[in-house]
Design brief:
The protein has 297 residues and is an alpha+beta fold. The chain has seven helices and ten strands. It folds into two domains: 8-100 and 245-297, no CATH class; 102-244, Alpha-Beta Complex (Adenine-n6-DNA-methyltransferase TaqI, Chain A, domain 2), CATH 3.90.220.20.
Length: 297
């Protein structure tokens, strides 16, 4: 590893951090990477000689101010989303501890939906309006909802594959390879065959199923098997048990947590939009294509 210590007389540290992740400098890193037999590397000793475009210090600060304002908003939303989901989770825990409940297999509480992949060789199946989820799209440290995916498919792709469109509130669990990753469907979307969609048999809003799935992830991971990849099957879901309160108690719980879950979903959507705005502004500001006075964050 190497330590980059900015010369504050000519460079704003925040500006340099944004310049570092901007496309032009990332391309410089790729160009300067030495390909090795074991690992790729960059030559730290040569890095100080790399050329960068450095605007005047005050302009650097203005650019960094715009981008950091967006990042601060994103971070505030993320923290508030964590609080909301923690509150919803606490209400779930109270439900489980205070209600009389039956012990049931997890599989008996959900309808399990399989995924599918349209043929990648058929261009008409791809780049449509329907998000297509894979485990790489699982939200990490931003909240439970998945709102956008790296790839999208068309209606024709859905019709000609095993994939189906999952409604909002469905819990997705990764079932092959990286087992047990969870996400809540925040926009109607399809998924690949390495995942299962878990749709509650009690209430379509799905919070009870999501938190129940959290409780059994460890058991599922321990029960996974496979000669090449760890895998959980429908039979695996039938081997784990959960406490299930009455349908009335679950419906009341869903009604109580719905405002919290929906607010969290709204914050995640706002963060998605803010992130897109920041990522679009970053290369434009760094290259000088737009100036700070033209930006209204």
């Amino acid at each position: 590893m190497g330590l980059l210590r900015p010369n504050r007389a000519i460079a704003d540290p925040r500006f340099l951090s944004y310049l570092y992740i901007a496309p032009d400098f990332q391309e410089t890193i790729r160009h300067r990477t030495v390909r090795g037999a074991t690992v790729d590397r960059i030559l730290i000793a040569e890095m100080p000689d790399w050329q960068i475009a450095l605007p005047p210090l005050e302009e650097q600060r203005r650019i960094a101010g715009v981008l950091s304002t967006l990042d601060d908003l994103i971070d505030t939303n993320r923290k508030l989303c964590e609080v909301l989901i923690a509150q919803a989770r606490a209400m779930y825990d109270r439900l489980q501890s205070s209600s009389s409940a039956d012990i049931c297999t997890f599989a008996s509480t959900v309808d399990v939906v399989s995924g599918g992949t349209p043929k990648t060789s058929v261009s008409e199946y791809w780049d449509g309006p329907i998000p297509w989820y894979s485990v790489a799209d699982c939200p990490e440290d931003v909240g439970p909802w998945v709102l956008r995916t790296a790839r999208t498919v068309t209606d024709e792709g859905i019709e000609n594959s095993a994939a189906s469109v999952l409604p909002v509130g469905t819990t997705i669990i990764s079932a092959r390879g990286t087992v047990g990753k969870l996400a809540l469907v925040g926009e109607p979307m399809a998924m690949n065959q390495s995942c299962y969609g878990l749709q509650s048999r009690f209430d379509s809003r799905g919070a009870f199923t999501y938190f129940s799935a959290q409780d059994i992830v460890g058991d599922l991971q321990r029960s996974s098997h496979g000669s090449v990849f760890d895998t959980i099957t429908r039979a695996t879901l039938d081997q784990v048990v959960i406490r299930v309160p009455s349908t009335e108690a679950i419906t009341e719980f869903e009604t109580q947590v719905e405002p919290l879950m929906e607010l969290a979903r709204g914050l995640q959507k706002e963060n998605t939009d803010l992130t897109s705005t920041r990522d679009e502004l970053l290369p434009l500001l760094m290259s000088g294509q737009i100036r700070v006075r033209q930006v209204n964050p």
